[in-house]
């Protein structure tokens, strides 16, 4: 079935390839005839691993097989993040009692996507629990770019706000790149500003903020005693917000990193060479046991909601990794939910705290 | 012998590892106890592939073995770059005759490193040949950071200068990162500004300038009919100016990219999996035939000068790839000299021309 899914994905990719080639020839027929290389943006393709997720793939693969011996240690992101959040709350208290100041986070939410609303609600609740002030601007799906930029500008000027984030993804008609570039650099607690990304990529530099999910992944590895230095790491997925910065960060920690994407041939074989696998695609159960080297450490960033009438919320989350299979092969693994997700929130709080400390010169 | 060289390299790395660990524990004992992760900059290590280059390694490995059948096509960077430079010269002429304006490049050279002086001289000669104005500020080894920043500032304000570069490497006592960050973004024809690098890394973005050597490598591949899309690429070396941007650029072209560095275990095995190998370490003949898959395409960025009394200049250049061996395994290869080097200069001229076109809104 996997082969069939990947074939579908490849078919979609071939369509992409055709459009890429026509763009490329367009570029070469344009005014700049000096080079063969087309503009970079014309090379962008959707990361279309598959257009359809088979239902039985979702249902069966995540149930552990009780007849197999379970070997993987659980990397408990929930417990680790709670420990971190409790330390953050202490620091926030110390800041309040020392200088009478409170870190503040502002969130801009656009539209009524259910998952975005849940993420924002979780962030706000986490702020409250840690004693961090928070504000949400809730804009309609039909809002203009100017509405967002105006909200950004208000938060930019507000000295009581030390972190600003725009909940992604934005509605497609909006220019996400342009909007993220308008984030005030010193409040970019998501770390998505291209200058932060450049400073993450470059040796000898330090970004003001490291994106929360990648930072959370590294922290999970370090706290689980996983050595990154000199290890082979494979990052599956190359999104701007997870795959790319995670690969850059793993490289900063001296892993040898390969980024697998929808156009990679034999992703399974490549992933199987890795000591550390970070899956960040958003395709449920993509990573089966055949993708993992025995003893590999697996960080599953995927969170794909599927309907589940037996759950209180009416849905449950599936990761990119087939957990039931992986626990029999990996040496350690993060669950979904309860792995990377809570760490992302904890790192957001931490980035906000650090930003406030920087602003007030408080250490 | 290679094993011995790498063992030496590893010994150097273990020293690095010790200092990394002590830095790491320092970070954890510091004021921020919330995370295990140390500051990123503390993770930086020298890319110390080897401390010593064996003389016989330099001497013997670059001579082709005439008894083997030669199979690799030569990727003639000199010829390709001449074609590009001639087109650039035509464009410069068209600009002059249409709007009476000339592109201008400024170079800041610090100290008296022979290789830097030669590189700068070549760039200036190439400018002259293409009809591009050029200026060089030649600062003493002992100059201050302020001297450099003041030169930068003058060029920044000069409307007849459309490209500014600081010849690297700078003397070690100077803060290269700080100086490069002061480059005016719209004149950063080397593309080393962190914002340019971030925009190169991020999908959906386009940097104002792509670093010259990586851009030259891609152009060599495209003009040689090498497909990058979907191929496995290995970049050996992760310098800020070549390895990193080349890996980002290959990924933009949808290769599956692995970056090999001095801490990679089994670099030979990993390189052998690649369809495209870009070697950018600066260690003569590091890449032997055992590092290459039959039919691989090899781009050799290394230029390591060794004394050679039989040469007019008193030295000759060695690449990172053992050319004499590689031509029997690869399907195509760039020579050193005459491969990537001339392309770097051509791309610098092109970036300067494009910058001037942007400034004058000339198309």
Automatic annotation (TrEMBL), chains A, B:
Swiss-Prot/TrEMBL keywords: Hydrolase, Multifunctional enzyme, NADP, One-carbon metabolism, Oxidoreductase, Photorespiration
Annotated signal peptide: none
InterPro entries found in the cross-reference section: Aminoacid_DH-like_N_sf (IPR046346), NAD(P)-bd_dom_sf (IPR036291), THF_DH/CycHdrlase (IPR000672), THF_DH/CycHdrlase_cat_dom (IPR020630), THF_DH/CycHdrlase_CS (IPR020867), THF_DH/CycHdrlase_NAD-bd_dom (IPR020631)
Pfam families for the chain: THF_DHG_CYH (PF00763), THF_DHG_CYH_C (PF02882)
Entry GO CC: cytosol
Keyword Hydrolase (UniProt): yes
GO BP term, pick one: photorespiration
Any GO MF annotation of the entry: methylenetetrahydrofolate dehydrogenase (NADP+) activity
Source organism superkingdom: Eukaryota
Biological pathway: One-carbon metabolism; tetrahydrofolate interconversion
Residues in Tetrahydrofolate dehydrogenase/cyclohydrolase catalytic domain copies: 75-190
Catalysed transformations (reactions): (6R)-5,10-methylene-5,6,7,8-tetrahydrofolate + NADP(+) = (6R)-5,10-methenyltetrahydrofolate + NADPH
Transmembrane region(s): none
SUPFAM superfamilies: Aminoacid dehydrogenase-like, N-terminal domain, NAD(P)-binding Rossmann-fold domains
Every Tetrahydrofolate dehydrogenase/cyclohydrolase NAD(P)-binding domain range: 211-358
Function: Catalyzes the oxidation of 5,10-methylenetetrahydrofolate to 5,10-methenyltetrahydrofolate and then the hydrolysis of 5,10-methenyltetrahydrofolate to 10-formyltetrahydrofolate.
Family, as annotated: Belongs to the tetrahydrofolate dehydrogenase/cyclohydrolase family.
Quaternary structure and partners: Homodimer.
Protein name: Methenyltetrahydrofolate cyclohydrolase
Taxonomic lineage from the root: Eukaryota, Viridiplantae, Streptophyta, Embryophyta, Tracheophyta
Gene encoding the protein: LOC110688680
């Amino acid at each position: 079935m996997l082969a069939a899914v990947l074939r579908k994905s490849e078919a979609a990719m071939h369509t992409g390839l055709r459009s890429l080639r026509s763009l490329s020839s367009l570029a070469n027929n344009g005014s700049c005839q000096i080079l063969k290389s087309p503009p970079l943006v014309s090379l962008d393709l959707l990361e279309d691993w598959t257009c359809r997720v088979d239902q039985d793939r979702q249902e069966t693969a995540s149930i552990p097989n009780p007849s197999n011996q379970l070997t993987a240690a659980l990397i408990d992101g929930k417990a680790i993040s709670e420990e971190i959040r409790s330390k953050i709350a202490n620091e926030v208290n110390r800041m309040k009692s020392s200088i009478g100041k409170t870190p503040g986070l502002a969130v801009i939410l656009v539209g009524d996507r259910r998952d975005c609303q849940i993420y924002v609600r979780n962030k706000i609740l986490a702020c409250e629990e840690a004693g961090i002030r928070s504000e949400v601007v809730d804009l309609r799906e039909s809002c203009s770019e100017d509405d967002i930029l105006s909200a950004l500008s208000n938060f930019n000027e507000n000295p009581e706000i030390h972190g600003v984030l725009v909940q992604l993804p934005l509605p497609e008609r909006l220019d996400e790149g342009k909007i993220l570039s308008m984030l005030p650099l010193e409040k970019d607690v998501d770390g998505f500003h291209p200058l932060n990304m450049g400073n993450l990529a470059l040796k000898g530099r330090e970004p003001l903020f490291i994106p929360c999910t990648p930072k959370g992944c590294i922290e999970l590895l370090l706290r689980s005693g996983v050595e990154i230095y000199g290890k082979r790491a494979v990052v599956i997925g190359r999104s701007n917000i997870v795959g790319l910065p995670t690969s850059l960060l793993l490289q900063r920690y001296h892993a040898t990193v390969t980024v697998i994407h929808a156009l990679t041939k034999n992703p399974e074989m490549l992933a199987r060479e890795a000591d550390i696998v970070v899956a960040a695609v958003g395709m449920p159960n993509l990573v089966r046991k055949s993708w993992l080297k025995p003893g590999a450490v697996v960080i599953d960033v995927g969170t794909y909601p599927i309907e589940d009438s037996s759950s209180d919320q009416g849905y449950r989350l599936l990761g990119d990794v087939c957990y039931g299979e992986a626990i029999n092969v990996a040496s350690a693994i993060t669950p979904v939910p309860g792995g990377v997700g809570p760490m992302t929130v904890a790192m957001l709080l931490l980035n906000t705290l650090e930003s406030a400390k920087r602003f007030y010169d408080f250490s």
